Amino acid sequence: MQITTGRLAAKLGARIAGCTESIISGVSGIESATMHQITFATEERSRALLYKSEATAVIVNQFVEDLHIPQIIVPNVHKSLICTLKLFKPPIYPKKGYIDPSAKTGNNVSLGRNITLEPYVAIEENCKIGDNTIIAAGCKIGRNTIIGANCRIDSNVSIYHDCHIGNQVILQAGVVIGSSGFGYYYYDDSHNLIPHIGTVVIEDFVEIGANTCVDRAKFDATRIGAGTKIDNLVQIGHNTVIGRCCLIAAMTGIGGSCTIGDGVVIGGHVGVSDHITIGNKSMIAGKAGIMRDIPPGKKVLGCPATDRREALKSISLIERLPELYDRIRQVEVEIRKSKQETVFH
Length: 345
What we know:
Strand order of the largest sheet: 10-13-16-19-24-27-30-33-36-38-39
Number of strands: 39
CATH superfamily of the largest domain: Hexapeptide repeat proteins
Structural class: alpha/beta
Number of domains: 3
CATH topology of the largest domain: UDP N-Acetylglucosamine Acyltransferase, domain 1
Shape: flat
Number of helices: 5
CATH class of the largest domain: Mainly Beta
CATH architecture of the largest domain: 3 Solenoid
Low-confidence stretches: none
């Protein structure tokens, strides 16, 4: 794709300083951009690099003096960058509205308009798939499952029976929705799996990264709130309810029956014990261990997780331990020396 700087500025609702007819055919970072690529700058340090950049144009939030390339000036660089990247993003599935002959559907399956089913998709009985949804190669959809409109289900995703996927949902490759929760009861000298007869509900505009697993509920529903974005390799335990517009980074494990509020941000490699409540708009730093409830709006880190300020104080003290140890040893030496001098006199 190619677009002139003038047309791009018009699409972004931006003003432009410099040539409006420069041709843009791609997007790249400041230092790696070449001719016919547009770049972006969000802060003073990156704006300084523009004078050496080979980019054809730049997106900025304020005019840069004496710059040799056209400037597309916008209120929000990140928002405009997202819009620009979408223009140049190649379609992942060019064959929309195509059903491969190897795709199999069971009895009473309802397919919406313009559905794409790639090779070896298997959809069991009584499922319903909404308009414009794309289901990539090797996916399996269990019986009685509902998938909304405009979804993208990437290759080798498994959605078990009786699950409900909303509209505009993205499930990346290898996601598993609705597998049995990790619940066992010990009797007769063995661990016995408790039947999980609940469901999973994924609300609208949720995005789930590759190889993430969301377990079905023992009763009722495991639920992921609208607009929540989950990274790769995340485990969501049974009966957990995650609020709207949360961000959960890779390698996080969330135990069963947790309640996570709206707008919560969880860093990578976090562990959340079962039956934990995390309040709205809390922020959990990477590698934290959550063993008790977190009030709304809190920022915590560490294992076990504590208030961010207190945790940073503790970390600072730990870093000073070698210095403190040396000082204590020196004091001990001086005390012994003082005692020897006292005895000698």
